[in-house]
Design brief:
about 350 residues, about 40% helix, three-stranded antiparallel sheet, 12 helices, seven-stranded mixed sheet, about 15% strand
């Protein structure tokens, strides 16, 4: 089934407002979840709607989101997310970082006490659209062992960096520090499919292709000790330094156990402080051209830039609609009915 991006946003906004969320924050969450769907990152899309609902019902996520600015000093902002919607806190942090970068050349925000923030590329793209380099990172519930370990200690701790491309869409890196996002393991559990060896270890610390065993064990860091090092510093900066939870303390968003305590870092760098914007754009454009025209590996016809595949999916999704798994569609429709929202995704969907 396919649903247009705008219809999907309308449903999400109505659903969140039925819980008491303000329209402006509901739209932010909708924009983020739909952006994930459009870019092909369905693990960070509307499948989070039931989890958001469950956490609100259990008093573990507060709406409307009440953000508190703890400190605002020159290029630095420190924010408490009020255990509200993570997308709201991360968007405000990014806005502050961009504002600071315009004034000081660089701006950085740390957020404590928030929840799952969704697609990190959403925030770095905000900075890139302003001619800046954007950086965003956050920690998450323990799912990955340190290199050489067998116990989940760090989250998948994603990182995103974006820059203006000079022409066309921004260049966006958005990656987890584990070999694979845990959402893909969960999807394999649901579809009863095996996972590639090298993604995870079981509870005994042995490599496994069984997604159930992987969920009981640990993911592996990307690049071995290099990914472990990245996860360590994402956790240290976004979690420990922000005053939020970190390592084993961060709670999962997928079960209503306790407030997650996610920490976030957003940063913006004003490229114009280092060279005139037209020169930067020209240099990046030439850099991109040189990469794409460089010799190709055997059986490879094209070299993609970071995030280019996702950007092409996004354009296609805006034209053709977003492909929604039928089970997810039915689950969301049931929730809409329970909440008394007079909208259904199925009424807006078109069969392929």
């Amino acid at each position: 089934m396919r649903v247009s991006a705008e219809h999907l946003k309308t449903v999400i906004v109505a659903f969140l407002m039925s819980f008491g969320a303000q329209e402006v924050e509901a739209k932010l969450v909708a924009d983020n979840l739909v952006a994930a769907e459009l870019r092909g990152i369905s693990t960070h899309g509307i499948n989070f709607i039931p989890m958001i609902a469950e956490r609100i019902d259990h008093g573990l996520l507060k709406v409307p989101t009440r953000i508190e600015v703890i400190s605002d000093d020159e290029a630095v902002t420190h924010i408490d997310g009020g255990n509200g919607l993570g997308q709201v806190a991360a968007t405000e942090a990014t806005r502050k970082a961009i504002e600071k970068a315009r004034k000081f050349g660089v701006g950085i925000s740390l957020v404590r006490n928030t929840n799952h923030v969704g697609l990190l590329a959403f925030y770095t793209k905000m900075a890139a659209s302003q001619g800046m380099i954007g950086i965003c990172m956050c920690n998450s519930a323990a799912a990955m062992a340190p290199w050489g370990g067998a116990e989940p200690f760090f989250g998948t701790n994603p990182l995103s960096i974006a820059a203006p491309s000079g022409t066309g869409s921004p260049i966006i890196l958005d990656m987890s520090t584990s070999i694979v996002a845990r959402g893909k393991i969960r999807k394999a559990v649901k579809t009863k499919q095996s996972i590639p060896m090298g993604w995870a270890l079981d509870a005994a610390g042995a490599p496994t292709d069984d997604p159930v065993a992987a969920m009981e064990g640990t993911l592996l860091p990307i690049g071995g000790p290099k990914g472990y090092g990245l996860a360590f510093f994402v956790d240290l900066i976004s979690g420990l330094l922000s005053g939020s939870k970190y390592s084993r303390e961060v709670s999962t968003f997928h079960q209503p156990l306790s407030p997650t305590g996610v920490g976030v870092m957003t940063m913006a760098i004003d490229t114009a402080r280092f060279m005139p914007r037209p020169i930067f754009d020209a240099l990046v454009s030439e850099h991109v051209r040189a990469i794409q025209e460089s010799p190709k590996a055997r059986n490879c016809s094209r070299i993609y830039l970071p995030g280019e595949i996702e950007a092409e999916r996004e354009k296609l999704g805006l034209q053709q609609g977003i492909q929604i798994d039928e089970n997810v569609l039915e689950s969301v429709d049931r929730l809409l009915s329970v909440r008394g929202v007079d909208l259904r995704l199925s009424d807006l969907a078109v069969a392929e």
